[in-house]
Design goal:
single chain; alpha+beta; Transcriptional Co-activator pc4, Chain A; five-stranded antiparallel sheet; two-stranded antiparallel sheet; 7 strands; 42% helix
């Protein structure tokens, strides 16, 4: 995890398509994706991740419908609506999956530290 200069944001995970930060001041997660930033409370971030990973990519690829290659996700308690292509869904899944892994690893390390302290 890296800290962004002169802010309360800690970088959780980054790819070439975007990043997830955690705000120390508000305990929110900030998603930077497609040239915009979206703030999530922790519970809403988890819910958004579940909705994103519930998208059936195989169905999107195989469906002959014209709109099948687009996914619409409206995060709870958020003014942002995500209209995603298949490649954007995959990119966003990589970002959120990486952030989830880093946060889980951080939790394991903190638990281990407390046990051996």
């Amino acid at each position: 995890m890296q800290i962004k200069a002169n802010t309360h944001l800690i970088e959780v995970f980054r790819t070439e398509a975007g990043a997830v930060y955690q705000c120390e001041a508000s305990n929110n997660f900030i998603l930077e994706f497609a040239d915009r930033s979206t703030a999530f409370k922790p519970g809403n971030f988890i819910d958004f991740s579940k909705r994103l990973f519930a998208i059936n990519l195989a169905e999107m690829l195989c469906s002959p419908a014209k709109h099948a290659d687009l996914a619409i996700i409206m995060p709870p308690y958020c003014e942002t609506c995500f209209l995603l292509t298949i490649t954007e869904v995959i990119s966003l899944q990589r970002i959120l999956g990486g952030a989830k892994t880093i946060l889980h690893l951080n939790s394991i390390l903190r638990t281990s530290q407390l046990q051996f302290a």
